[in-house]
Amino acid sequence: MTVSKFVCFCLVLICFNAFNQSVLRFVPCLGSQAIELGKEYTIAEGRISFQSIKFYVSDFRTLTENGKLIKHWPTTLVNLEDSSSQSIGEIDSAAVRIDFLLGTDSLSNVSGILEGALDPINGMYWAWNSGYINVKSEGLYRDSTGKEFPFEFHLGGYLAPNATVRFLSFDVNPQRGIPQLVILMDDWLTYAFEKGIYSLMIPGKISAELATKVQASIQLTYRHE
């Protein structure tokens, strides 16, 4: 094979791979705006800014039309301080469904001190009897009168009936564009603010209720680059 033919072959191979695979990202949003930490946004007739947004994604897998597993990813900590953490992995063109857990499974919570994404150094672990924080959101909300409400939501807990891990499944078609999972933060935060809840730091019934609201706020969309 000549050098020119080899280069041409490589370019075709690169284009083929780019067409057949695309990187799925998690994108926390307010309305149609992707959130940036420290930036102020409008929400519920007030203003809001975020200091921290973190959440666990575990048991993430892609499947074919007949349910065959294509690929499985380990637990990932999505942290808005590190944009690279928002990328989960490449979704193959053969994938028609993605399944994952928002949060950590019960086994992770009772397995002692773990490493990597589950290392307590990441600030997402309470203690052996309460386990991991599955979703963390912190910042400042200013209502329409200008009154300020610092907020801290640490949603976690793995014991029934108030477990906060949630299963999600979406049909996916990479031919429509690059898939992304959008978390509409205003949906569940507005719900909490309207109930006068601005701080939640322990497992319990309200944490489980808000975890379900976060689950419902996640949508699959497509982007084009």
Task: Describe the fold and architecture.
This protein has 225 residues and is of the alpha+beta class. The protein has one domain (23-223). Helices cover 20% and strands 44% of the residues. The protein is built from four helices and 15 strands. The chain has helices at 3-20, 106-109, 185-194, 205-216, and strands spanning 21-30, 33-34, 40-43, 46-63, 69-73, 76-79, 87-92, 97-102, 125-127, 131-142, 148-156, 166-171, 178-184, 199-200, 218-223. The strands form two sheets. Strands 3, 4, 5, 6, 8, 9, 10, 11, 12 and 14 form a ten-stranded mixed β-sheet that branches. A hairpin with a 3-residue loop joins strand 9 and strand 10 (131-142). The radius of gyration is 20 Å and the shape is globular.
Rg of Cα set: 20 Å
Can you tell me the residue ranges where pLDDT is under 50 for at least 5 consecutive residues? 3-20
Mean pLDDT: 89
**In the residues, how many domains can be counted?**
1
Describe the SSE topology:
Layout: H1 3-20, E1 21-30, E2 33-34, E3 40-43, E4 46-63, E5 69-73, E6 76-79, E7 87-92, E8 97-102, H2 106-109, E9 125-127, E10 131-142, E11 148-156, E12 166-171, E13 178-184, H3 185-194, E14 199-200, H4 205-216, E15 218-223
Parallel strand pairs: 1-13, 11-14
Antiparallel strand pairs: 1-2, 1-7, 3-4, 4-5, 4-6, 4-8, 4-10, 8-12, 9-10, 10-11, 13-15
